[in-house]
Amino acid sequence: YQTGKYEAAAGRYAQVASMGGNSPKIQQRLGDCYRNLGNTAKARTAYNRAINMYQTQIKQGSEVARNQAGLETCESALKVLGG
């Protein structure tokens, strides 16, 4: 992701998520990859998944400040995408 190889990164993030390593940060990064690739539908889906996961973690009291920051970042990304 950091080197700009978004298609490869998206594949790896999706693989990690499917192998049980799914987290809001993985979904957020997946959304970032799709956004950078111009695939707004998949980006929206990933950001919405991340938002739901962040909200769950916040309700559970887990690292609230960090999760709130991630939540707000995803919400902002959705606004930029128009969704």
Short summary of the structure?
By secondary structure, this protein is mainly alpha-helical.
Protein architecture, described:
The longest helix is centred in the middle third of the chain and has 20 residues, at 40-59. The protein is mainly alpha-helical and 83 residues long. It has helices spanning 6-21, 24-37, 40-59, 64-81.
Features:
single chain; 83 residues; mainly alpha; 4 helices; 82% helix
Write the layout of secondary structure elements.
Layout: H1 6-21, H2 24-37, H3 40-59, H4 64-81
Helix pairs in contact: 1-2, 2-3, 2-4, 3-4
How many distinct helices? 4
Distance between the termini: 23 Å
Helical content, roughly?
over 70%
Strand content: under 5%
Please trace the helix and strand order, writing H or E for each element: HHHH
State the shape: globular
Q: Please tell me the overall pLDDT.
A: 95
Our Rg estimate from Cα atoms comes to 12 Å
